Amino acid sequence: MVKVIPKVAQHLGKKFETEEFDIMADLKEAVYDTIEEKGRLDHEMIAEKVFKENITAKMAFKEEVQEQGFVPEAPPVKEVQEISEKKFGKQKFKLSNGIELIVPVDVYRNPDLIEFVNNPDGTISVMIKNVDEVLNRL
Prior knowledge:
It comes from Enterococcus faecium (strain ATCC BAA-472 / TX0016 / DO). A hairpin with a 5-residue loop joins strand 3 (114-118) and strand 4 (124-128). 49% of the residues lie in helices and 14% in strands. By secondary structure, the chain is of the alpha+beta class. The chain has two domains: 3-86, no CATH class; 89-128, no CATH class. 19% of the residues are buried.
């Protein structure tokens, strides 16, 4: 049932003309936060965090997730909770130029550490800020 949530979020992101990487980043953060705070997935809390002020999108998300069989009260087994935290605790990006980034959720949302800039030519620049050292891992 966890797979229902990203599918619905992507579908509604396209419908409401929101960048897919923004929707997926917000979704991962929301899933991680709800598991941390409540010990289970809460589709209403996820809707609030992903679609923020867009009331129509929030309502559509809640309805569509329930229509697809999501059970909001089912608490995850401890192993599932740990896997979800690992999977949703980091943002993974593969850029069109081949660069791959793995960024912890708390770093992703901190504009003092990373910034995505929309350029006038339609490209996106990624700025990594305030780095003390770079380690090379094999």
